[in-house]
Amino acid sequence: LARPTLARLGNASDICGTSAGILAGGCVAALVSTLPANASVIYFSWGLDDVCASCFGHRPSLDDYKNNLEAIYATLRTVLAPNGSMIFATTTPAPPSDARRSNDDVVALNAAARELFGPGGAHPEVLVDDLYAAIVEFCVSDPATTCYPNTCDCPAMQNAGSVFSAAGRRYLAIHAAAEIAPTLPGLLAEGLRTPTDEANVHGLPTWKFVLFAQILLLSAVAVFATVALVALECYRRRRATGARPVALDSPRSPFALDSPRSPFALD
Questions:
Q1: What is d(CA 219, CA 225) in angstroms, rounded to the nearest whole number?
Q2: What φ, ψ does residue 197 adopt, rounded to 5°?
Q3: How far apart are CA 161 and CA 87, in angstroms?
Q4: Which segment of 40-49, 105-114, 192-201 scores lowest on mean pLDDT?
Q5: Cα distance between residue 193 and residue 181, in whole Å
Q6: Rounded Cα–Cα distance for residues 197 and 46 (Å)
Q7: Does the pLDDT value for residue 199 go beyond 50?
């Protein structure tokens, strides 16, 4: 149904990880030159390395960041199909354990991006996937991490500063997929996907429902395992004490017909 093109532009030693570097280094232009001019959806984001001065030796101002995003948007739009969609993802939080970044800078960066994309922005047709809000909402729902991201980390999502754990990456992937899926053309018209307003009978966003279902399944497995262990321990203790099961037809059994304790005893 769709042929996705995944591009990670930038790594620990590559300036293309910043919004400035991707333009100066020609990274985005090189990517666009390899794509056909009919992309149905373009999902993009830059920001986390823009608030890390030590990562690439350069930290743009908020105005520079906005100008960089504007240029990236204009370049990516050249390969967007006439009825295609663009989705910008906000920058995820930087917890206290990230010594190279400040979460206040992340908040300011996201506010600057909102001036460009989404309702009230210069380009309101660009949808916004608020990953920042999604991660914060998940973490503060746990009583142990209500202080996230200001004064504590969220180990369930991030395990090395701003780096996401395996569970965190899965969470982000589900969230992003739920944002992208409704924008894909043809799926509704061809009857290959139920409209969101009909399918969402549980009243939850799709990504939340999927995550809840996974948690529920794991909880059921844990309960089953606990019951099995308790039963095994009871059996082991009975064997150790030499206890023997009482036959149902034994006078000592409350289920024996001739037992005075039996609810089925005949007068």
A1: 10
A2: -70, -15
A3: 26
A4: 192-201
A5: 9
A6: 31
A7: no
What does the pLDDT look like over 110-165, one tens digit per residue?
999 999 999 999 999 999 999 999 999 999 999 999 999 999 999 999 988 899 99
**Side-chain-side CA neighbours of residue 241 (13 Å):** 8
Burial 67-86 (b: 16+ CB within 10 A, else e): bbbeebbeebbebbeeebbb
Show the DSSP H helices in the chain as ranges.
19-24, 27-33, 53-56, 62-77, 103-114, 131-140, 166-180, 196-199, 206-241
80-89 β-sheet, strand order: 39-44, 80-89, 127-129
Residue length of the chain: 267
66-118 per-position pLDDT tens digit: 999 999 999 999 989 888 999 999 999 999 999 999 999 999 999 999 999 99
State the residue for tokens 């990562």: 55
- The whole-model pTM stands at 0.67
Please enumerate in sequence order all residues whose Cβ is within 8 A of that of 238, keeping only pairs 6 or more positions apart, or say none: none
Interacting residues of 170 by C-beta distance below 8 A, sequence separation 6+ = none
